[in-house]
Each structure stands twice: as C-alpha cells, then as structure tokens.
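// run 5 | inverse folding | seed 20
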C-alpha cells in the first residue's frame, strides 16, 4: 500500500513505476480522490468550529435574556450539514483506501523490464544436470509405477489437482519438511512457528492477497480463509506492532499446508504435483529495518539455496522482470530446480522483498533506541522450500533405469536409513 502524501509529491515517479508494470497512470485519479476526502474533512471541521462558536453565542444570548431560537435552529441545521460532510469524507476515504489496496508494489530500480518469465535475468547456476542413457521419466510416471502416488483415488474424493502419497513417498514428504526446518532453525537461526491455517480478512489484506486475489483463495462459510502460504500468518505476527530496532531482524519459518484455487491456471500442469490445490511448503519470513532489507533478501535466498545444495539438486537463480514479479514485491529472486523429466528448470522457491508495502497495510513500525519517531518496517518472504516440488525434483533427478529412486544422502537419516525406494517399498 502507498502513502498518498508521497504520491501527491511524486506523481511522475509513481506513474513511471506503474508503467514498468504495464499499468496505466493512476496518480491523477488517486490525488483527485484524496482531494475530495480532504475537502469533505475540512468542511466537517469548519462546521464543527462554527457550531462551537454558535453554542457560545447561545449561552451569551441567554445570559442577556435575549431570544436565542434562531441561533439554536442554526446549530441544529449545522449538525445535519456536518453529518453529510462526514459521510462524504468517509465514502471518499473508503474509495481511496480501496484504490490504494488494489495497486501493486513498484519495482525496484534494478528489476529488469520485461513482459513475462522469458525476460527474467539469470543470476547464477549451481550443479550440473545429470545425464541418462534412457529417456528420463516425469515424477508422476515414476510415482504411479512405484504404486506410491495415486491421483485417481484422490480425484474420487476431492476432484482434480490432489494426490495421495503412501509408503515411502508419504514418508519422504514428511522427511523433507523436517530436514528443511532443522536446517533453517539450527544453522540459519530462524524461529520455527506453528501458525493457524485459517485466517480472517484482515490478515490477507495485510499481506496483499486481498482484495485483488480473492478468487485464488478458498473461503469457509463462516468467514475464515485457508492460507495460500504461511507468509500470511508469519508476517501478521507483528501486525499493528511498534518494534524496537535492536530486536530486528526477526526471522521466522513454518511448515504448513497451503491452499490455492489455481483459478488462473486452467490447462497448466494438469498432471502431477507441480500445481495443486493443497500442498506442503516450508516458508521463511523476515521483518527488518529498512537498512537491513537488501542484505536480508540475499541471506534468505542463500538459505533456500542451501536446501538444494544439501540435496544435490541442480538449480539456477533468476531475478524476475517487471512482467513476472508478484503483486506485493519490489524485487524477487526465483530459484528454479532442474527437472530432467521435463528437460527444464521449474520454480521451487520465490524470495521477495516487499519493502514497506505490507507494513503500511498492517501498520507495523520500528523505532531506534531512545527515539520517539517511528518508521515502517520492511518485510520479506520466501519458500524454503516448496516440499512437494522438492519431492518431484528428487524423483526425477535420482531416478534409476528400473524405476527405483535413490534417496539423497542428506535425507537418509530422516528416512530411517532407507537408501533406495523400489516398487511397493
């Protein structure tokens, strides 16, 4: 969310940022709404001041024994006029807030311009994709052949974009989440949180999923929303707070189920586990001072990369262009893991800096020691990692010609020492 005062003072810069996202100029419209709001508020204040003056005149007239009925009538009329002005101010304020809530964050200066993922900027590559003397299979072929991945039964009870994992694959998903959490908490100094998976409207407004992306979410009949990512509850841990600078950064991690309707993905990744309505993800969130923000994004990305390094999964890191960056982000690094079955890199983590975009929506501030003045914190979030997609990457990269799957060495302690998953293991 944006500071309307900043937009009034920097309309050209604001519109230029929107133009980089291929959006039309909005400063004039927003400034107009703000002008209406301020005019109505000023009018209400003037009426209140006039009524205070009239009230004193009534008292003075009565003290002199004079007829004050005309002044009393004017006071009564002014109450109605003030109510009208206050309602106009309220409506204008709501319109302005709604408009501001629907505008995406402005991209940072170093974000490359572009229209789609094809224009993203490759930053680095780690590992070398393995070679196969046969055509490598995709994860769903491998999982179904093992008898441990069942889409058909899941569809009977829940519909498309669900899966049932069993046996060693069910254990692998649990093992991966534990491995990631242990790494982040013991070596990366993140605090593990077990947050609610159901939240109210305010939490989603705070992180930017509402009002724009309501169709991408699942909602219960009694007003709760199922979280699309643990970013929502983790970031809202500090909603409305004033934090001391010396307590920052605060770094959190959580493993949760995530729920997304995938409303805009019809026809995309219809087979397999890449894009599902319910999936497991380990999330990272940082709350920092503005000065720490850029360095924290590099640190967070490195934490996510380390998971893939330990699992020896080849990947690359790309900086998203203006046409691919998310709604609340000013800068995003995507980590894409190599999938030999698809013969391409696929996203497994997005690490984003939101600047003070979410903090303004949540009204979360920080304050230097011994100072009264506050400023908005910066927030960051990133997958560390998407657990299901990591399982997909292991299946495809560690597959053997007979369809068995070698367990990465780093994961074997979490799999009870199991080294290979064979059919019906």
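// decoded
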């Amino acid at each position: 969310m944006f500071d309307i005062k900043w937009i009034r003072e920097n309309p050209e810069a604001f519109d230029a940022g929107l133009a980089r996202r291929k959006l039309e100029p909005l400063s004039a419209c927003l400034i107009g709404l703000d002008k209406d709001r301020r005019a109505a508020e000023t009018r209400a204040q003037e009426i209140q001041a006039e009524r205070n003056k009239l009230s004193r005149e009534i008292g003075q007239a009565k003290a002199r024994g004079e007829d004050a009925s005309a002044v009393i009538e004017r006071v009564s009329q002014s109450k109605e006029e003030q109510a009208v002005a206050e309602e106009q101010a309220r409506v204008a304020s709501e319109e302005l807030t709604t408009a501001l809530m629907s505008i995406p964050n402005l991209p940072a200066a170093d974000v490359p311009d572009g229209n789609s993922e094809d224009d993203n900027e490759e930053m680095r590559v780690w590992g070398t994709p393995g070679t196969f003397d046969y055509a490598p299979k995709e994860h769903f072929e491998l999982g179904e052949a093992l008898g441990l991945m069942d889409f058909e039964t899941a569809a009977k009870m829940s519909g498309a974009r669900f899966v049932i994992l069993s046996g060693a694959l069910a254990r692998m998903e649990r093992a991966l989440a534990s491995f990631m959490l242990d790494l982040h908490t013991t070596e990366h100094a993140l605090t593990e949180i077990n947050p609610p998976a159901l939240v109210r409207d305010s939490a989603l407004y705070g992180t930017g999923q509402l009002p724009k992306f309501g169709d991408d979410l699942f909602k219960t009949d009694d007003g709760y929303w199922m979280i699309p990512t643990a970013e929502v509850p983790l970031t809202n841990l500090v909603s409305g707070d004033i934090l001391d600078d010396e307590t920052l950064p605060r770094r959190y991690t959580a493993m949760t189920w995530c729920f997304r309707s995938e409303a805009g993905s019809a026809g995309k990744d219809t087979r397999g586990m890449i894009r599902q309505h319910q999936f497991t993800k380990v999330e990272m969130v940082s709350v920092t001072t503005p000065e720490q923000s850029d360095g924290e994004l590099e640190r967070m990305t490195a934490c996510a990369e380390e998971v893939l390094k330990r699992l020896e999964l080849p990947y690359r890191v790309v900086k998203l262009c203006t046409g691919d960056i998310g709604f609340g982000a000013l800068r995003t690094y995507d980590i894409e893991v190599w999938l030999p079955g698809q013969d391409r890199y696929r996203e497994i983590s997005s690490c984003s800096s939101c600047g003070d975009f979410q903090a303004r929506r949540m009204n979360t501030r920080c304050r230097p020691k011994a100072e009264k003045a506050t400023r908005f914190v910066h927030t960051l979030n990133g997958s560390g990692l998407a657990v299901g997609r990591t399982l997909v990457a292991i299946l495809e990269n560690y597959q053997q010609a007979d369809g068995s799957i070698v367990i990465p060495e780093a994961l074997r302690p979490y799999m009870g020492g199991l080294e290979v998953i064979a059919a019906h293991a």
